[in-house]
Amino acid sequence: MSIYGGNGTLMLCARQNLGLNMYSTLKARKPISLIAIILMFFCMNAGASDLGVEKIQTLISGNALKITNRFGASIIYFDPDGSFEHLAEQGQTSKGKWRVTTDSMCVTIFAQPNDPPKEYCLNLINRKLGESWTEQDARNGELKRTLLKGHPAW
User: Is residue 79 part of a domain?
Assistant: First the structure.
């Protein structure tokens, strides 16, 4: 009942006369076309996701993020090897690892005694080096963040 027509189309022929039934041919092409469109959409989105990861990776790797809140300022230095070091004005330090998602940079602070590791993520879509922005945080009040090139000293 079916004959492969080449070029990715499936042609259906009626058994009685073995003539080409145009309606059946078109009907068979619709699902194949729909599948092709869906696959193309997913492939394009996968490429866009990779592009988002690459942009954020480039933005963060080897650079720093300065954060100012009601307690003072601190800087997070992001090393290309996926590690980071956090230094606060008051002298506190922490270390951990960082990773990138399609829209964010996430840091995991190495476990402290009696304190399990925690991951924090920050959306960085459309951000640029040198850019500053503010956000409200329920625990720390107003946060001002600035993306800095390289590893600047205090």
Answer: yes
